[in-house]
Description:
This protein is of the alpha+beta class. It contains 13 helices and eleven strands. 36% of the residues lie in helices and 17% in strands. The strands form three sheets. Strands 1-3-5-4-2 form a five-stranded antiparallel sheet, sandwiched between helices. Strands 6-7-8 form a three-stranded antiparallel sheet. The chain has a three-stranded antiparallel sheet with strand order 9-10-11. Strand 10 (311-318) and strand 11 (323-326) form a beta hairpin. Residues 17-151 form the MobA/VirD2-like nuclease domain.
Amino acid sequence: MVAKIKSGKSLKGALNYNENKVKQGKATLIHAPGFLKDPANMNFYDKLHRLSDLAARNERSKTNTVHISLNFPSGEKLPTERLQQISDDYMQGIGFGDQPYLVYRHTDVGHPHIHIVSTNIKASGERISLHYLGQNQSEKARKAIELKYSLAKAQEQPRQKTDKLKAVKIDYGQAETKRQLTNVINQVIREYKFTSIPEFNAVLQGYHVLADTGARDSRMNAKGGLLYWLTGEQGDKRGVPIKASSIYGQPTLKNLKERFRLNEALRKPLKPGLIQVIDQALKQATAKEFQLALQKQHVEVLFRQNADGRIYGVTFIDHQHKAVFNGSDLGKAYSKTTQPSQPPMVYPETNSDSLIDILFQPEQQDLTGLNKIKKKKRKRQNL
């Protein structure tokens, strides 16, 4: 079982997401502990008012919404009664057993999963802390449930294809564009660990989406605004942009910056492993072979170019571990040491070469330059 927790400040948005799935025939409300009516007899406002009444008891709290998904491997046979028991045990395990919550069974993807909507504000007005909820209480609850119900353990489940998200590329003009755009944005935020807008866009661009903070001298940029665009194959903007504040989950620049700080810590343990994968790929003879070797390890490499077409940086997307790193975050040897506005530098024998300069030497030349860097690195470590 895999648990994913998302917090926010829009109970209506979380509820709308699931209720829209119900209208589309892709979800069913199967459980509603803490509500006065049976699930079959409740309308939208019965559900919303019960949760929003609690949320209103602590107006100082910036977060009042908890939206959880519990995911099970394909082929796992889980009747409704069992899913109700699992949801009760899980909510009890994370400290939400006395809260009202709604459990929806979704059927829109291949594997069984449920969504749970609740609030972290108690009847007393006290706030249930969400700090490290996913890493601590959720993990303990997940493991206990796997044992109790003989479920497949998360770490033993076969990996799904990790090259890309399940979200599909969005083409401008297709039906329900905003809904699909919202799904892509929220899934990228939920799944990937990135620490800047460019890193965020590195993943989004694969789905024809762009997060735009505006030109540096623009009023929007000065006020910290953020728009989301649909883009064409070449990254060109299409149609009319959508304000971040109008999207469910409110992926505004302010909220993303909070995510950046969290992701900085979450991705740190993944750095050594990625460096090892890159070093192994650098044993290939050409830039193209280098990229193909990384692809086999579910790592995508993007070369950043300025308006003149000059490559000035590199970004690595580890799709397996869902982490994004600029080359400079991994070390000087994995980045571009010159600025876009400067002419290419000539590295003296005693200077370290950069990954990009080495990769874009004539293709018949091998990548022994990186080996020289590694030898110097090892030599310094031995001193």
